[in-house]
Structures are given as structure tokens and as C-alpha cells.
Amino acid sequence: MHGKAVCYMHGGNSPAGIASPSFKHGRYSKVLPVRLAERYAEAKADPELTNLEDEIAVTVVRLCELFAGTKVGEAVRSRRWQAIDRTMVLLKKLVDSEVKRKATLKQMLAVDQVMALLAALTSSIRAEVLAAIADEVQARALLAAIQAHVSRVLALPAKSMPSVEGEGSA
Asked: For residue 19, with 0-12 CB atoms within 10 Å meaning exposed, 13-18 middle and 19 or more buried, which class applies?
């Protein structure tokens, strides 16, 4: 069967994607139309995908427009006031989500920050051990034991940790 890894007798002739009778929403489908596949790839690569600032701004503008169109003495149960209520609830949800997103971003460390922290910590431990223990062989043994322990804790192979053999290695 052209375009399929199986023959027509073993599922290759079955409709796929939107043509399938079991198609619901397509979210987990392997078959995307070309125009959607390109947009999907762009959206997935967008680091600001979860940023809600634009949606908040649009919602604020919508709320202002709704208020501007309200007439003095208009019944609180009118459609306009119901729309204002719904828009205010939406605005609150968007703002809450954006606040949580920004708080989460502040709590996260980038890989280069973590690596710099580990390098500083490793350097400090090495310097303190070498300064505190006069016997260099004993100091190197202690540094090797520390390295092995850290490797076990981090579940890293010992080779991926900086060597304790030379002063200059880090």
C-alpha cells in the first residue's frame, strides 16, 4: 500500500485521520493535514506558547468595550451584564494562570545555571578538602569518595563527573 508500512489486507487500506470513522478530535492523530502540521510544529517550538499576556490584553479591551456600551440604568440581568460577568471570570482565570506561570519560571534554573552552581560547589569542596588535609594522597582519596557518592546520588556514571586527579581539572 502506497504511504503505509502494511499491505492493504492488514490495515493499509483503512482510512486514517479525519477520514476514519473513529476520528474524534485529532489531538493524538499521527495524520495531520500539511497546513496543520506546519502550524503544529511552529506552535510546539514556540517558547512563549504558554504566555497569556496577549489573551489578557484582548480580554481587558473586550471588557472595556462591554462597559462602554452599557446604558445608564440598564438591567443587571441583561445580556450585556451577563457578558461582562463572563468576561470578568475569564480575565480572572487568565491572570491567575499567568501569575502561576511566571512564578514557576522564576523557580526554575536553566541548565547553564545548574552547571555553574555545580562547578562552584565542586571547586569549593576541592579547595577546602585540599586545605584541611595535609596528606595529599589522603585528600585525593577523600575527593574520590565524595565524587563516587555524588555520582551515585545523581545516578551518573563516575566518568561524567569532573576528575579529582589534578588541581586544574574541574
From this structure: exposed
The pLDDT value recorded for residue 168 is 45
* pLDDT tens sequence across 39-77: 888 888 888 888 999 999 999 999 999 988 888 887 877
Q: What cell numbers appear for 121 in the block?
A: 560547589
- Please answer whether residues 67 and 84 qualify as being in contact, where contact means their C-beta atoms are separated by less than 8 angstroms: yes
Structural domain spans, the chain: 8-45, 53-107, 111-160
The helix (run of H) or strand (run of E) holding residue 139 is helix 136-154
pTM for the full model? 0.48
Please check whether residue 91 is in contact with residue 59, taking contact to mean a CB–CB distance below 8 angstroms: yes
Residue 96, pLDDT score: 94
Alpha-carbon distance of 159 to 161, in angstroms, equals: 5
